[in-house]
Amino acid sequence: MPILEIIQPDNPLLRKKAFRVPDSSFNDAKFQQLVDDMIETMDSANGVGLAAPQIAQSLRLIVVRLPDTSEEDREEYGELAGQLFVVANPKIIKQSREMVEGVEGCLSMPGLLGEVDRYEMVVVTGQDRHGKDFRIKAKDWLARVFQHEIDHLNGILYIDHLQKEVIDAKKKK
Ligand code: ZN
């Protein structure tokens, strides 16, 4: 399975609204391959999420996986640690009133981090990789990742929501 190239903001595709995954795609071997390639690409980049526009595919498709690499991960995320979510046509149908501040990075902007306000809880609906109905109530970090990845489908990057100036992680070290 190939690892795909993750595009950077100089590629205008990252700023385009992505197209719906049509129902006819779910039985398509090429679509299933794309899902596998996205998972592999996310994992090899040590990311917690990846949206199809980031690999130059204009599709409403995201993959999300919280880390499961240390005891702390398992303590922090519990049964969500390492759990994979593949969501086609994801949509936030409900969100908490409370917003929380947190630090985010993006695989399309390596080395940068920024502080972004996100809803503390979101309910996301969509379809799984086989076209079946998907629904999750996500909180905290997982809610943040879903909001970040769904933004990508609308051409929005986290730097559009910045509370403070972007932090250059490489310079700080
Ligand atoms: Zn991103």
What would your notes on this structure say?
The protein has 173 residues and is α+β, with helices and mostly antiparallel strands. The chain is 24% helix and 29% strand. The chain contains four helices and eight strands, in the order αββαβββββαβα. The protein has helices at residues 29-44, 71-77, 140-153, 169-172, and strands at 49-51, 61-65, 84-95, 99-104, 112-119, 121-127, 133-139, 167-168. Strand 4 (99-104) and strand 5 (112-119) form a beta hairpin. The mean pLDDT is 94. The site of zinc ion (ZN) has 5 residues, from helix 3.
Provide the low-confidence segments as ranges.
none
Shape: globular
How do the SSEs run, as a string of H and E?
HEEHEEEEEHEH
Strand order of the largest sheet: 1-2-3-6-7
Distance between the termini: 34 Å
Q: Could you give a short account of the major beta sheet?
A: 5 strands, antiparallel
Strand content: 25-35%
